């Protein structure tokens, strides 16, 4: 008999394939997105200002807020039929990281009427006032 029986080889290969498939860890990647957890605490006006001061504190129309409170305000603006304008006015000494995260928060909340204000103050790059 000169033929080689390869059936046991195929059976072993299938068992190994199943074992490798079962050994692969399940993907557990989670994307953490802060979701609004309530209604806005401050009234939404015709024009709203998001301000970041020099110590990276967030303000909504002059009232200090944390990121979750700001998200609630922005979600309230985004859910309105005719969205009021949200103006972004960071201090010149505010960190870039906080400013970038705040702009991303505004975008992720679904705000469409968005404006940068006060950029003309920083036209000269010699020093920040």
Topology:
Elements: H1 7-23, E1 47-52, E2 58-60, E3 63-65, H2 67-78, E4 85-90, H3 96-109, E5 114-116
* Largest beta-sheet details: 5 strands, mixed
The first-to-last residue Cα distance is 94 Å
Structural class: alpha/beta
Number of helical elements: 3
The stretches of 5 or more residues where confidence is low (pLDDT under 50) are none
Number of strands: 5
Read across the widest sheet, the strand sequence of neighbours is: 3-2-1-4-5
Helicity, in percent? 25-40%
Strand content: 15-25%
Describe the structure.
By secondary structure, this protein is an alpha/beta fold. It is elongated. The mean pLDDT is 83. Helix 3 links the parallel strand 4 and strand 5. The protein contains three helices and five strands. Helix 2 packs parallel to helix 3. It has a five-stranded mixed β-sheet with strand order 3-2-1-4-5, with helices on one face.
